């Protein structure tokens, strides 16, 4: 073994095929996003979607990741876009997602409160109202405001 600049010469490494290169978190996130879109589009049922999500999280190489989406069309080939029809935007989508978040948070805090009452064996002040009340009031005022604007 010869020396280059006083350092031992490194043995030449064999070339690695692109599909054998190690994938990173960002690469897995891209595949997860595509799988979510395919599930929403109806291309994957719940069971296959779950299997592919698990396989994506366990994938180590680009080849393993590519195999998980190889039978899916590219995102730009979604039928609504391919047919030239732009998907209709729902003006109430943001409001509905806000209501869904409020309902989930309210139900969760109410359940925690109820479990606390049962565990203590006594009624405890319904503190969950401090979460549900103000947030719900803001949503109600926003809803009324949109209805008044629509007159």
Automatic annotation (TrEMBL):
The keyword Transmembrane applies. Coiled coil: none annotated. Residues 21-73 form the DUF1707 domain. Keywords: Membrane, Transmembrane, Transmembrane helix. InterPro entries: DUF1707_SHOCT-like. The chain crosses the membrane at residues 99-121, 127-146. It holds the Pfam family DUF1707. Residues 1-24 are annotated as: Disordered. PANTHER family: MEMBRANE PROTEIN (PTHR40763:SF5), MEMBRANE PROTEIN-RELATED (PTHR40763). This is DUF1707 domain-containing protein.
